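ok so heres the complex, two chains, lmk if somethin looks off
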Amino acid sequence: MSLENKVFSGDTLRVGYRFQRHWDNSMAYAFICAELGAGLFFVSLLLNSMAGMVLGLILVSTGKPYFHLAHMGVPGKSWRAMLRPDRSWISRGLLALGAMVGTGLLYVLALQFGEQSGIAPDSGLVGALKMAAAGFALVVMCYQGFAMSHSSAIAIWNSAIIPMASLLYSLAMGVAGAMILLPSAQSAGLADTQMLLLLGLAVMHLMLIHGGWHGNPGARTSVELLLQSIYAKWFWGLVVSAGILLPALLLWFAPASGTVAFISAFAMLSGFFTWRVLIFKIGVYEPIMSMNPFQSAR
Amino acid sequence: MARVGMVFDLKACIGCNACVVACKQENSLPDGVFFTKTLSEEYGVFPLANRVYIPTICNHCEDAPCEKVCPSGATHTREDGIVMVDDDKCIGCSSCAVACPYDQRTQMEESNFLAGLFGNGELTPFEEDGYGRYTPGTVTKCDFCSQRVDAGLNPACVVTCPTNARIFGDLDDPASAPSVMIRERHGRQPMPEKNTKPKVYYVN
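and the predicted structre for the whole thing:
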């Protein structure tokens, strides 16, 4: 059944597909801040870029909570979101986020002011802080994907590819940010890594589309929305062309420079931003049941 | 302990929406918020066209995905199987609403309580009395009229239905009306492929 023949019930009382609208753009922006910030912090941590680490921490500790609280119905009770790490990825992620900001901040302070206080940058304590901050950053990079893929309600999200997408986009955006912030000699060495990540993103999108197309009706409907509806131009134009192809071409053909790194990062950011918004918009609930003996609503 | 559930008789449902009105009245639901809806589906071509009504409600799943994802512990299951939301604990993150395959949860926006039933911004005494049970921003849903169940009564939608299309009772009791109906008329659960084990069944 093609997209035109499917019933989208919207707010009507018809049996049909219903769009996920509980998580809106505000949540998408919160996801973007967390993944972008954690990715930038993680990559900068590995490359010892102080500016990248600080910027990453700022994004995670301000942008993410701001947009998350803006989405929340009762922001005053938001601390309660951390109470069930045994079963909820949101609880686990928020705890990891707090731990990442805490250990990351301590690590940055130790690097900056440690020697004045008698803490050598190569001491075991600083090394342990670095390891802990990197580990927590990895969790923050992935957990939102796990929170989405955990439940079977929205079929296109209920896939192992979604956490992988979070990780890949985090790393790619982290490398893109580091290429701007680091000196050009060092950032040129990141081009190969970025090409690999862009290839990974392309493969990830192909896997998601292929899996959804051959998956259950809900997942297929989401893929059809992505490729055939008004969202298609955004997907092909920004997510694929600007977010993957343009940076790949620039990194491959253009000589390494700050301008190329900036244009490439900006194009990737636009693709990443669009992808995050689109993945929320194409999420659909399947029809509860159909009594039509001739044709399933699904 | 009983394990309560509900059966919808699709042959009996005439789509009168009396259950919807009873639910809104019993639970003092503001404009635009529904705990139960009667969906309709049309098929066939004249003169062989048909319309069927499909009542929907929270399915009080045994393996409730909404409960699994709730980060604050607000969503919990009572001993009798009714899935509840604790207003005091709910933070309004909507994770439960996203996780429910049946899309049966509603976030109570502040605006829901301001317009009033007549849309003039003034609340009737009925609204003023009833809205106090809700906290704006939290997520709510059907709780099988738990206050009525605790008092030994059936949910409001069940007692209102003029055609007995909604049957409520103990699913663990093989002699109860819903158990007999499920057994004899091959009751089926909505979207069984989601593995949520709903305690709501449909018979045709």
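quick notes: Helices of chain B lie at 18-26, 65-69, 95-99, 125-130, 146-150, 156-160, 177-184. thats all i got rn
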